[in-house]
Every structure is written in C-alpha cells, then in structure tokens.
Design a protein that fits this description.
By secondary structure, the chain is mainly alpha-helical. It contains 6 helices and no strands. This is DUF309 domain-containing protein.
C-alpha cells in the first residue's frame, strides 16, 4: 500500500484542513513516516511534518521556531521528488512562501488548506476531537496526560 492510501495520511489531511490541529498532524505523519521505513528526510512525509510544525509554532507566536521550520520546509521542496499525487504541490509551495513572509513580518496566524484531489476521501476517516482552546498548547496537555499514566 502506498502511504497516501494509509489511514494516517488521510487523518493528517483531515486534521490539517478541518481542525488545524497541527500537533496531531505531526504525530500521525511521524508515525506513518517511521512505519513506511523511508530512510531519508528528502521525502514528502517529513516535508509535510515540517509544514505542520511551523504552523503550530506560528499559531503559538513562536516566531523563531515557525520561521526556522518553514524555511527548512521550503528548502526541502527543491530537494525531494514529489510523488504525492493527491496534493497540489505548486499551490502548497506558494502557500508556504506566503506563510513564511507573514511569519517573518510577525503577522497574526492565518491557516491555509491543502488542496487535494477529490478522489482522496479524507473526509471519511475518523479523527480525535480536540477542544478549540487546546489547539494552541496541545503539546503541554499531551505531555501532562502521558505523565499522569506513569
């Protein structure tokens, strides 16, 4: 099975487009990336992880983290062979360039949507519901929950 057919990839798109839950985007894609056994960072999955991470930092006004990860993401666009047939990579690159400019100018967070092929039925997958107020500092809540279990 190709990674774009995997449930986690479809969840990633739903988290990104519907919930703007970039922490969860990172989590599900990192798990998928590890399971695909891709040994390089010059691949679409780590690129999408970087973009999600940058948006998470931007929302939290972690300007340095947002700028660094988006800059790295844009460099990767030129290093990878884009094999993702369902996401419009040209539009995504333009969105990332615009986001980096906004981040550099310290503008307010502004999400964007991944433009996907309609045949990619990401809307049908289930995802974890997260209260809106948790999206900004979700990593804090996740780590607190993990420590409660130990």
């Amino acid at each position: 099975m190709m990674y774009w057919q995997d449930q986690r990839f479809l969840q990633f798109i739903r988290y990104f487009n519907e919930k703007q839950d970039y922490f969860e985007c990172h989590e599900v894609l990192e798990e998928l990336w590890i399971r695909t056994n891709v040994q390089t960072k010059k691949h679409v999955l780590p690129l999408l992880i970087l973009i999600s991470t940058s948006l998470y930092h931007w929302r939290r006004e972690n300007w340095r983290g947002a700028e660094k990860t988006m800059t790295n993401a844009l460099k990767r666009f030129n290093e990878i062979c884009w094999d993702e047939p369902y996401i419009d990579e040209i539009q995504l690159k333009q969105q990332c360039e615009h986001a980096l400019q906004s981040i550099t100018e310290r503008e307010a967070f502004d999400s964007f949507t991944l433009h996907t092929d309609p045949s990619l039925a990401w809307q049908r997958v289930t995802i974890e519901e997260t209260p809106e107020q948790m999206l900004v500092d979700k990593h804090v809540h996740v780590f607190q929950e993990r420590f409660k279990k130990t």
